Amino acid sequence: MPRAPGGSTAPTWARPCGPSAASVRVDVTNDLPEVTTVHWHGHELPAAMDGGPHQEIAPGASWHPSWRIDQPAATTWYHPHPHGATADQVVRGMAGMFILDDDASRALDLPDEYGVDDVPVIVQDQAFDGDGQFRRAEHPLSPVGHLGDTVLANGTIGGYHEVTTDRIRLRLLNASPSRVYDFGLDDGRQFALVGTDGGLLSAPHRTDSVRLSPGERAEIVVALEPGERVVLRSTSPDLGTDPWTGRFAGGDDRFDVLQLRASDELTPSPELPDQLAGTPGLDPDDAVATRQFRFSGVSINDRRMDMDRIDETVLADTTELWEIETSDGAPHNMHVHGARFTVLDAGGGRPGPELSGWKDTVYLAPSTTTRILVHFAAHADPDLPFMIHCHLLRHEDRGMMLQFVILEPGQEPGRPPAAHQHEHADRDTDR
Ligand code: C2O
Ligand code: CU
Ligand code: CU
């Protein structure tokens, strides 16, 4: 978990245990003086294990979720999700990575030695006061919320990694509350994009940049020569906004993120395979329903989050076509729990190879329509909802989130358990 100078309030939590590769149990203890939750972003699991706003952990209390891992190898992550206070907790460093392997991914010639040639890169932007304490950095004109002036990789400013092999796999996670990055290498060299949110692509995609909005992940493989130094950096991301909005949304910002220092002698890595995973293979003809979502301000379909209201009901293990429209000129993105999706078109165009694999979060440029095919997990629960929301956390905290339940055929939606954390209600308005 990232830690920052000056100490953070991050609790000791999320210690996976249990022998089985297919099942996981996590013991979470909340050492914070406030309510939290731990959400498994990108996991398909029963709603009771999801760690969304309904699975509160009181200060001093513990939570012991367990579930069977039943999805392809992927880079997922976890972070708090308390209603109205997610940005507050995530921005203080509470974000971790969760790596899923499977037989198919292990059989491929991809760098996979954790910490050696397979390295997590959890990226957050922070701001510090004179004492090295975290400071919220919200320009009054920012349409997105906190934008820190300092970028940390795995909790470290100006960090480097000693590379000992001639190829290295970096698992990039944008765990920032509101900043969009456009990652690349300082000399403009190409790398191979091999995976996105929900797993490996069908084939490596050679490119020199990859844009990640908050919550998105990318697995890239970089080739190095002995003795060289290369910097992973983020250059001004194309947000699709007007220049003024873009400027206050971080669209002009550039950061060095992590230096790669290659040893004088590098262990040879195998050539990258031409084929990685199968294609997701969702077919628009399989969609059992079509839904429209309009993202504007801090609302979706003119509604703001209500813990007691179920907004949509879907059927377990089915596919739907969702059309997501943006209309307010600000950057947003869309994340869905308990499901994974493929992108049919983004902003009117056919998606590029970077959007060809499984996704759970997608950037939404202003005044565009993004069409996705969503496949829901097989875990029905009429009472406990999953979330659809903007992963720009200030927007989410202010209410840009809806709830849906997954039902079996013939089941009626129930009622979410009474929400008891309305002490967060006052936070809706102050950021
Ligand atoms: Cu990464 Cu609803 O969250
Ligand atoms: Cu999530
Ligand atoms: Cu938003």
Would you identify the CATH architecture of the domain at 284-407? Sandwich
What is the CATH topology descriptor of the domain at 284-407?
Immunoglobulin-like
Distance between the termini: 25 Å
Sketch the major β-sheet: 7 strands, mixed
Could you say which structural class the secondary elements and strand pairing correspond to? mainly beta
**What small molecules are bound in this structure?**
CU-O-CU linkage, copper (II) ion
Range of strand content: 35-45%
- Could you give me the name of the CATH homologous superfamily of the domain at 284-407? Cupredoxins -  blue copper proteins
Radius of gyration: 20 Å
Count helical runs: 4
Q: Keywords for this structure?
A:
431 residues, Immunoglobulin-like, seven-stranded mixed beta sheet, five-stranded mixed beta sheet, 4 helices, globular, disordered C terminus, binds CU-O-CU linkage, binds copper (II) ion
